[in-house]
Amino acid sequence: GVVNIFLLCFHCQVQSIERLEALEAWLKTTNTKLTQVNGQRKYGGPPEVWNGPTPGERCEVFISHIPRDTYEDLLIPLFSSVGPLWEFRLMMNFSGQNRGFAYAKYGTPALATDAIHKLNGYMLEPKCHLCVRHSTEKRHLCIENLPAATKPEDLMK
Question: Which pLDDT value is given to residue 139?
Answer without folding.
Answer: 60
